Amino acid sequence: MRTVLITGTSSGIGLATAVAAARAGFTTVATMRDPGRADALREAADRAGVALDVRRLDVTDAESIASCVQGIGERHGRLDAVVNNAGISNFDPTMEMSTMEALRANLEVNFFGVVAVSRAAMPQLRASRGRLVTIGSVHGVVGQPFNEAYCAAKFAVEGFMESLAPVAEAHGVAVSIVVPAFVRGTSFGIFPDVNRGAIQAASGPYAETFADYVDWVVNDGWEGAGQTPDEVAEAVVRTLSAEKPSFRVPTSDWVVDYLDPKLADRDGSAIQTLARTWIAGSRRAEAAT
């Protein structure tokens, strides 16, 4: 049975993915920074009639990551897939409100945490010829005004994984980014934790611009963008199970339409095909043609 490690499973996409992966037949290691917050996950697993291996993993703590990954190998004998889901929501306009400390904290979780988990898991993924899947965002492709820090982290994840993918593939590991828009009922919903008045008051010369932007979002900018965690989880499980998964996996038609003005290469296959020739060497490149 294939074993998958999923980070950030206390709620939202991570919780839904853990349950969906277990239902699909994966031995599922569901991790979170604080296992004391696992009640909702355990209740969802009980309703679905599946078993989970719940463990602590803090993506900003190297010792926590190493201990978790090692423990999976010891208990289950293999690791076939990782889903990098853990992240923090951030809507803190950098130019006026955010501090450099807050920006670094955002990157620590949303980017460096992804890198750290991926690095720790890669030896076992190479051994199993497994999958490395990361939850990205439309804001990792198209920048969102007044959300510079979160977009910067997600852009960094896109660049890191796009660069890693052909190298990992050469060693048997498929790399994918699953790209949702807003997810209803989570901290990543449409302006879930924004005090519009407070931000506007603190926005200085950008106050009027911020007001116009929020009006656009609330009135029609993100109409039809929302998805449920279960819908995103289905896309993750399809990616884990696909014989040859795409690099970039949009989770809805809305996402496809939103990304189209920016991306001619929707699923990343054209760039990955080109990049493979850069590392194949002349003999392997000839053999591949």
What does this structure look like?
By secondary structure, this protein is of the alpha/beta class. The chain has one domain (3-191, 226-288): 3-Layer(aba) Sandwich (Rossmann fold), CATH 3.40.50. It has helices at residues 12-23, 39-48, 62-76, 100-128, 148-170, 196-202, 207-221, 229-241, 253-259, 269-279, 281-288; strands at residues 3-6, 27-32, 53-56, 81-84, 131-135, 174-179, 248-250. Strands 3-2-1-4-5-6-7 form a seven-stranded parallel sheet, with helices on both faces. β2, α2 and β3 (53-56) form a beta-alpha-beta unit.
Task: Describe this structure in a few short sentences.
This protein has 289 residues and is of the alpha/beta class. The chain has eleven helices and seven strands.
Keywords:
alpha/beta; Rossmann fold; seven-stranded parallel beta sheet; 11 helices; 52% helix; 11% strand; globular
Q: Could you please say which CATH topology applies here?
A: Rossmann fold
* Beta-strand proportion: 5-15%
> Could you say how many structural domains there are in total?
1
- The counted number of beta strands is 7
Strands, helices and their partners?
Layout (H helix, E strand, L loop, with lengths): L2 E4 L5 H12 L3 E6 L6 H10 L4 E4 L5 H15 L4 E4 L15 H29 L2 E5 L12 H23 L3 E6 L16 H7 L4 H15 L7 H13 L6 E3 L2 H7 L9 H11 L1 H8 L1
